[in-house]
Predict the structure.
Amino acid sequence: MTSTGKMIRAGLTAVVAGLTLASCGGDDDKTTSGGTTAAAPDADKVRGVTRAFTVALAAGDQGTAKQRESACFFLSDKAREQVQVVGTKLGASTCEATFVAIGNLASDDQRAKTKSMTIDVQVDGDQATASYPAPLDGTPTSLTLVRNGSGWVIDSMPTSGSSTTAPTATAESATVTTVDPPQEIPTSTTLESGVDTGDVEVFGGPRTVSSGDPDDVLAERIPPEIMRYCKKVSDLPSIVIAGLTCEPFAKTEINYALFKDSSTMNAAYAGSDDGPKVPGKAQGQDCREPGSREGFFSNKTFGIESGRVRCWTLSDGRPRFTWITTNAGSEPIIAEATEGDKVWGSLYRVWSEHAGPFASQQLGE
């Protein structure tokens, strides 16, 4: 079953003007058929259908009804069923509404990147494969198409190397973040029954922690203004290899946990039964105001091109933000900030202006 995460990550591609069955790609678009050049009409049709589909999938509310209708027309019955499964999870009742829900999770930056997207096509009789780099993280992504009369339709939703090879947490073994003040560091807990851990793949491709001492790896990503108020946490569960608890501002606590890999981090982030569910539809700026939200954010100050954030209010009235960075090459870190004075705006400023972590070591130096 195609997960929401696979479709969102693999399908985030650019907005290009209009829908066409002719190739819109650059000079680097490649076409092969059994090792030789494929017939141009088939190649162009396969590439055109692929681009029409990915454009509509990324456009969200910025796209047109005609784009979405045409893209849904290019789906086989099998592919439509896969879209419907995703739509149900996103609260969408139609194919077109599902495209809007998925596309609204894309950022303008991600859409812009896809303007130079190369689509490689391999035709084998009545089947074809269209491959392209996912704009979110560059992961190789592919669509399977089948011949339909004189044209082509998509028969299988996007798949990518990261979504098919990354170790995926299971309901029996995955872990979630729990809180046990004053050291609110993720601890080992079984995932809530029924959580579809495949959905955590929305958070980017597989990544493992950098080589070196884990404590140093974590410390190098924390802004210096925060790091000077941090203490090392030594009593950690097996899935967390380094931890810091920090009090840089009065009544504000920030905790950082470095996981052994992104699969474990993603499951911990998505599996918590406290706060908003994952994945959500919000944008980072939506966390300016009190509420319960989850969604995408970016932060140029810390080099974060893509990340996920959860913001909500605890039962005792304290606001809490939990977030991860999903950039390619970023470390698998969950950060969590809580404001003891129950002032939501103060915590938002801490999260957006001070807490980091840096997406790369170079930015932190």
Remarks:
- The first helix runs from residue 4 to 11.
